[in-house]
Automatic annotation (TrEMBL):
The keyword Hydrolase applies. It comes from Chryseobacterium edaphi. Pfam families: 4HBT_2 (PF13279). The lineage of its organism: Bacteria, Pseudomonadati, Bacteroidota, Flavobacteriia, Flavobacteriales. Transmembrane segments: none annotated. NCBIfam families: YbgC/FadM family acyl-CoA thioesterase. Belongs to the 4-hydroxybenzoyl-CoA thioesterase family. Keywords: Hydrolase. InterPro entries: 4-hydroxybenzoyl-CoA_TE, HB-CoA_thioesterase_AS, HotDog_dom_sf, YbgC/YbaW. This is Acyl-CoA thioesterase.
Length: 139
């Protein structure tokens, strides 16, 4: 059986305050772009941070990776492709690919988030609301 992954593409424009004196995006902003991708994914697929919070959970990031290949510059637009990677574990795994206006890969990365309940206990099993969402998505 082939695994199904959900994807979302969001267009973003580089803002002036995200660039260094050379006019290129400072490397730390790519993690913010990943969050832009997660937020867009949540809105598109019904798994926003508010949905998670309303269910009584938070999802801190426990791991993030980012590889840079090409620069982005002030004023450019780019697409961030966010893919949810299905896992049997109680975690959210997202992969990211950022493409410039020429559709060249600028950056790729991944984040892993875990579920904590209202008492900050680590969830070892999928919370009920998350399992319901996964079932609805066919994951």
């Amino acid at each position: 059986m082939q695994s199904k992954n959900l994807t979302c593409t969001e267009e973003v424009r580089v803002r002036f305050n995200e660039t260094d004196p050379l006019g290129i995006v400072w490397h730390g902003h790519y993690i913010v772009y990943f969050e832009d991708g997660r937020e867009a994914f949540g809105r598109q697929h019904g798994l926003t941070y508010l949905d998670i919070q309303n269910a009584g959970f938070v999802t801190p990031i426990v791991k993030s990776t980012c590889e840079h290949f090409l620069p982005l510059k002030y004023g450019e637009t780019f697409n961030i492709v966010t893919t949810f990677i299905n896992s049997v574990s109680a975690k959210l795994i997202y992969k990211y690919e950022i493409f410039n206006q020429q559709n060249l890969l600028v950056c790729s990365g991944e984040t892993i988030q875990v579920f904590l309940d209202s008492e900050n206990n680590l969830c070892l099993y999928n919370p009920e609301f998350f399992q319901i969402w996964k079932d609805k998505m066919g994951l």
